Fold this sequence. Notes:
This protein is of the alpha/beta class. The protein contains 12 helices and 10 strands. An 8-stranded parallel barrel has the order 1-2-3-6-7-8-9-10, surrounded by 6 helices. A two-stranded antiparallel sheet has the order 4-5. The protein is globular, with a radius of gyration of 17 Å.
Amino acid sequence: MNWGMKNRMSRIFNPETGRTLMFAVDHGYFMGPTTGLENITETVDPLLPYADTLMLTRGALRNYIAPEKDTSIIMRVSSGTSILNKNLLHEGLSVSMEESLRMNASAVAFSIMVGAEFERDTLLAFSQLVDEAERYGMPTLAVTAVGKGLDRDARYLSLATRIAGELGARIVKTYYCDNFERVTSTSPVPVVIAGGKKVPEQDALTTAYNAIQAGAAGVDMGRNIFQSESPVAMVQAVRAIVHANATPDEAFEMFNDLK
Ligand code: R5P
């Protein structure tokens, strides 16, 4: 790993714990004005001190995040379909490497669709992104999106995760599932879990805990933080799980104390 790559990775993974709390607010690129993200500045600013990195689009970064903020950025660089399209997540590259470098990104995120009709498009586009990113010391984060009709089980998610790693991803984001050790133990690179749809706080904290105990290097959580009844309390509770090995009960107690 060259110096630039190492430096960027250290701005994502806390060097003291080797783990990360990614705060994802990139939903607008395919979902529009998502509940809780109507004004990203208002949502994100109070939470930034507790997140290791912020995952978002270039438009959100430019318009909602003050450049003086001390946070690392994971730039969403794939798009092409919206929730109104039946081929949701048939994505291609939508942001150049030059733009990501200009906006001082610490990583670029791209969705691949293993098992979908158009998997070949997304896998080859991702591989090209890896080639270019490696040239500039830019980590790539592959998001293993899951199409309709595919089970989010360890068999499928370990296959998609391993393919992403073999194609050159430096970080893979996937979904938590039973027997998650199978996913983490067969990945050549750190795995983080996506938070998913909003669920009760205690359930989201339990999932985060189970993922970390099964070898995840962190969480990339959005809705379960910014749609919480108390986002500032929730981000701190998740942080305690990721960086301080808090149990779900301890983290939930923390949430209730802080909210
Ligand atoms: C999906 O690919 C997007 O990148 C989201 O940012 C990601 O799924 C994490 O957000 P959430 O925790 O709301 O699922």
